[in-house]
């Protein structure tokens, strides 16, 4: 599965005001602040194999400032721009594509991961939020109401099997609001996954204030750099296999012919990471904070432990710089689930996806992991106090 992000940035964004198209404007008052499109690209780094940017002919000089992306000249309409991007990646080996509006700069990593996960078993998927407000018809006065049952607010990225959406665009004529409309016109089913309120589209001038406020809330204030304190911790955990049909690994339920046994849900990856954070804080291990002799933790979800560890770090003034989790096993295969695991850990700890690494290795059929008697995990966490 080779996944591409196709970021649509060919519009002019006139409703947002200003002399520069909204995707090229900075989010923040400081001249060094990243632009809208910089935030959008950053959201997909590490989640896809390649990034394509569809741009306007007048933005050729601006597109040259972007690194590690493939630029594509857009068309007169959104649909034409998307098709141009799809045609450009036709012989690249891409199997799946996530089509995203450049103006949705704050798309959460978990939304991207959710779309990718659903695409493993479905031809098309898109995030959306259910309509909860009352709906009126009218101009200056209310002429009537509409039933909001079954109505959704569409978001991006909208994910598709590559060949499916390419052929759908080739067969489509006219204009479309989004690529879901194009896919449905070709007779394809599109699965809905839950969107996120942070994934709003910057459309009007006031949306810049909203986006900047969201970014300020997510970034801790600067402190005296001379007070920097860097901590490194490591963790190790093992759980044996027992009878079952799935395992929990780094917050993801993975189908398997066995299950992992333990006092909690036996999420060996999350346990190792939790101990790594406790270790960096010199706060012992999971057993110290959640004793196995205490039956309230029997069968507990491991995100409870990890969230406690990261919350404790923040109470002590530390932020997670990065973490690296390695799962050691012959089966199940971790690769197809690694992105979902990274997204789950990022969501639990409320950190950026690019700070999370999840990978796997085998033990070359040696030892208990080689005999498929269980799974081991090692993890490293770096904490920084500034």
Automatic annotation (TrEMBL):
Catalyzed reaction equations = 2-C-methyl-D-erythritol 4-phosphate + CTP + H(+) = 4-CDP-2-C-methyl-D-erythritol + diphosphate; 4-CDP-2-C-methyl-D-erythritol 2-phosphate = 2-C-methyl-D-erythritol 2,4-cyclic diphosphate + CMP
Mind telling me which residues the site (Positions MEP for the nucleophilic attack) is annotated on?
A: 148, 201
Pathway(s): Isoprenoid biosynthesis; isopentenyl diphosphate biosynthesis via DXP pathway; isopentenyl diphosphate from 1-deoxy-D-xylulose 5-phosphate: step 2/6; Isoprenoid biosynthesis; isopentenyl diphosphate biosynthesis via DXP pathway; isopentenyl diphosphate from 1-deoxy-D-xylulose 5-phosphate: step 4/6
Return the annotated site residues (Transition state stabilizer): 15, 22, 263, 362
Q: Name one Pfam family in it.
A: YgbB
Instruction: Recite the UniProt keywords alphabetically.
Output: Isoprene biosynthesis, Lyase, Metal-binding, Multifunctional enzyme, Nucleotidyltransferase, Transferase
Binding-site list for a divalent metal cation:
237, 239, 271
Record's PROSITE patterns? ISPD, ISPF
Q: Which residues bind 4-CDP-2-C-methyl-D-erythritol 2-phosphate?
A: 237-239, 263-264, 285-287, 361-364, 368, 371
User: What is its cofactor?
Assistant: a divalent metal cation
* Region described as 2-C-methyl-D-erythritol 4-phosphate cytidylyltransferase: 1-230
**GO molecular function list:** 2-C-methyl-D-erythritol 2,4-cyclodiphosphate synthase activity; 2-C-methyl-D-erythritol 4-phosphate cytidylyltransferase activity; metal ion binding
Name the Gene Ontology biological process terms.
Answer: isopentenyl diphosphate biosynthetic process, methylerythritol 4-phosphate pathway; terpenoid biosynthetic process
- According to the record, the residues making up region (2-C-methyl-D-erythritol 2,4-cyclodiphosphate synthase) are 231-386
The protein's role, per its UniProt record? Bifunctional enzyme that catalyzes the formation of 4-diphosphocytidyl-2-C-methyl-D-erythritol from CTP and 2-C-methyl-D-erythritol 4-phosphate (MEP) (IspD), and catalyzes the conversion of 4-diphosphocytidyl-2-C-methyl-D-erythritol 2-phosphate (CDP-ME2P) to 2-C-methyl-D-erythritol 2,4-cyclodiphosphate (ME-CPP) with a corresponding release of cytidine 5-monophosphate (CMP) (IspF).
- PANTHER family from the xrefs? 2-C-METHYL-D-ERYTHRITOL 2,4-CYCLODIPHOSPHATE SYNTHASE, CHLOROPLASTIC
NCBIfam families noted in UniProt? ispF, PRK09382.1
Protein known as:
Bifunctional enzyme IspD/IspF
What organism is recorded for this protein?
Pacificibacter maritimus
